Amino acid sequence: MSSDSFASLVSQVWLGQMPFPDLVQAASELGEQGSLPLAAVLYQTWLQRTTSPYSHAVEFNMGAALATLGDLAGSEAAYRRAIALSPTFTHPRLNLGLTLERQGRIDEAISEWRWIADNGPRDEANRSVVVYALNHLGRVYETRKLFHDAIDVLTQSLMIDPQQPDVLHHWVFERQKVCVWPVLQELPGVSVQAMFDATSALAMLSVTDDPVVQLQTARRYVQEKLAKDLPALSQRSTYGHRKIRIGYASSDFSLHPVSMLTVQLFELHNRDLCEVYGYCWSPEDGSALRQRVKSAMDQFHRIDQLSDEQAARLIRSHEIDVLIDLQGQTAGARPNLLGYRPAPIQMTYLGLPATTGFPFIDYVIADTFLIPPELVAAYSEKPLYMPHIYQASDQKRVSGTAPTRASCGLPEQGFVFCSFNNNYKYTPAVFERWCNILRRVPGSVLWLLADNPWAEKNLRAEAERRGIDAARLVFAPRASPEQYLARYLTADLFLDTYPFNAGTTANDCLWMGCPLLTLTGRAFASRMAGAMLVAAGLSNMITHNLDDYEEAAVRLALDPQSTLDIRQHLAGVRASGALFDTPQFVRDLDERLVQLVRDLPASARSE
């Protein structure tokens, strides 16, 4: 729009001669032309010079324009004026909540959305606003780990509009976290099949161990959510560096299980062969582990302020030969960054214990137990097989001293079963067997992770429903890594979950010498603990059906010497076994990565 045309518009507004519909159209055209500041000026002038029953709508539009321009204080003021002019106008309350959230004023944002949920009209004009408010509440409650509240508002949202697959997948995962069983339970207008179809790749790991279903789930996400036809920034060719360049990308370079497993891997890469780059959008949590990760990198780059394309171009400019994504389809993932293919070789590791379904990921780091050759077709990636174990370990982790039973709320006598996996891995089928085991081993207790109060309450109720005194479930609050590791010195036997096995937790358990019993299935997530037991020379601790799992647990508990023998065996594994031999793991990985890069054809250097 020319300056003369804009001046003409302002003149009309100044004289009070522009009707409301014309104002909206003119401002909309300015926004489409990239002149949003001028649209804001037009709104502001109109409000100063015009008396109209539509002033509340103009204040709302101005608030939206200012929010887009980054003027959060001005946006907030405009939304509040719109509400003052029309207290039942729900749209500015919805957007005011978002503006407050962007300012870090979460409680105030919740109040605005809560008002809409409790008071907003549910007629056709306001129905979608109420749904959005409920969904924002669910999102924030989930972030704050208020899982019960999240389920409540998401249920309300689905009752208004059942056709919301994104809401459904959060609803399913929240129910898993609080151990509401059955997790998939029909709602009006929402079938169990619809819930299954909407379940995320991560939540699906606790639903089925069918790797084909997991592949279908991953590919559905790719089809529905990811950008298509992004330009590839690299070619399948080598840059010809003397040392290969390995990049790791993650939002978990902090006090997180992924970093707990990988930090020594970063440290031990052979610098005669490799240069190691970190690409980070993780929180600055101030932890010693985060500092150790950063120190282990030859170059460390924060990319949280960069768009996916900008981050991809940065990685490309560094001529990274192998980019290793530590996210998969998990919270914080940036798959579109990888979709630009900033490196000629891209692989996935640890973040999602399943296939990613990403067409731009070439390899997954695995071993032949984790992904048997006969099941490779159920993975979109090609396995990069390690000779001993797929999982890296940190030999430098330290534990505290063994806590007393009394300090943990455990009885002084009796066998202590434990399962410190996240509560969303607990399933009714396995919990049924845990109760059977407690019934058959007099005086025994089951020591679980106190992940959230709703799960604790529901699990106690499930135990009593099965005739087990709820007091035989003991819940351990989250603790520092040192205190958490020390608990394995007090437990007698770890009972693994299924179909989503322990991963980092199994590694910690075996490192501390605590016997672990697993139930192995067909998918990646249901074979993690088994892979570690094979590497530890304890294949006899792997079961393949629920009956054998229950029988083995009872047999071990009634023969205390057997678990002591396993502890002694694991002490030898820790000292010299393949499972925790991180230097050998890194040598094996370096060898494979160097060979992959050498096998690429030569390319022209970057400009």
SS elements, strand count: 13
CA gyration radius, whole angstroms: 28 Å
Largest sheet: 7 strands, parallel
Number of helices: 26
- Strand arrangement in the largest pleated sheet: 3-2-1-4-5-6-7
Number of domains in the coordinates? Answer: 3
Tell me roughly what share of residues is in helical segments: 40-55%
CATH topology of the largest domain: Serine Threonine Protein Phosphatase 5, Tetratricopeptide repeat
CATH class category name of the largest domain: Mainly Alpha
N→C terminal distance: 38 Å
Low-confidence parts, pLDDT < 50 over ≥5 residues?
none
CATH homologous superfamily classification of the largest domain: Tetratricopeptide repeat domain
Rounded average pLDDT: 94
Secondary-structure-based class equals: alpha/beta
What would CATH call the architecture of the largest domain?
Alpha Horseshoe
The dominant shape is: globular
Short description:
With 607 residues, the chain is of the alpha/beta class. It is built from 26 helices and 13 strands.
How does this model look, in words?
The chain is 50% helix and 9% strand. Helix 3 (36-49) runs antiparallel to helix 4 and helix 9 (147-160) packs antiparallel against helix 10. It is built from 26 helices and 13 strands. It has a 7-stranded parallel sheet. The mean pLDDT is 94. It has helices at residues 3-14, 20-32, 36-49, 55-68, 72-85, 90-102, 106-119, 124-143, 147-160, 165-178, 192-198, 201-204, 211-225, 257-268, 288-296, 308-317, 335-339, 405-408, 428-440, 453-465, 481-487, 504-511, 528-535, 546-557, 560-576, 582-598; strands spanning 244-250, 274-280, 299-302, 322-325, 345-348, 363-366, 382-385, 416-419, 445-449, 473-476, 493-495, 516-519, 542-543. It has 607 residues and is α/β, with parallel strands linked by helices. The chain is globular and about 95 Å long. The longest helix is centred in the first third of the chain and has 20 residues, at 124-143. The protein has 3 domains: 3-199, Tetratricopeptide repeat domain (Serine Threonine Protein Phosphatase 5, Tetratricopeptide repeat, Alpha Horseshoe); 244-385, Rossmann fold (3-Layer(aba) Sandwich); 405-579, Glycogen Phosphorylase B (Rossmann fold, 3-Layer(aba) Sandwich).
